[in-house]
Amino acid sequence: MRMHYRLSFVLTVSILVMACFDALAAEIVWTKTTGQYPVECTPVMGSFDGRPAIIAVNRGGEVMAWGLDGTDLGKEADGRVAQLPKGIWSSSPAVIPAEQGGGIVVCDTKGKVVALDGAFQPRWEYQLPGETSFSCAAPAVLQLPGRTDSAFVLSDQSGTVTCLDASGKSAWQTQLGTGEGDALVSVFSDEKDKALLASAGKIGRAHV
User: Fold this and answer.
1) Which domains does the chain have, with CATH numbers?
2) Do 171 and 180 form a contact (C-beta atoms < 8 A)?
3) CA angle (93, 153, 79) in 5-degree steps
């Protein structure tokens, strides 16, 4: 079968199968089984063993790494490179930059945050004050003043926004005080400043 390799591609997930499409030709390039559980969040681009990798986390916490051509990079079934603790993992991971050692940071629906290093071994864990909303716990990546490594910001259903530094320690927390945090935290900046946008409360109030 003739394969097409391009820099542009689209990933879609259906039940336990992931398909990679050539974004220009709209052709299926490859499909992968997503372990024993469905993937309910968007895969991310990272690295594994020095190679560019598509990183996918399924609902049961299986972490899989595939090459851009669909090759299994992990030695376990379906390219699995790690197994997260028991929980419901429905949010996309944040990628730790390769120059900082690589790896991912990911959060489950109970508010457990787990970091894996570049070899996808456990790096640290942190428990948020509250649970998180389904598919809304992808960490936002932030650069702290005077630091060269990345920090990770999440909100939870207690209305708390937590910033974790690269070692997994809380750099700061703030209580929004208007109810549950039911949406992703976003980072935006202009030429002078950088800010976070977080929502909390059932009335749709946003905080900056």
Assistant:
1) 9-207 (2.130.10.10)
2) no
3) 10
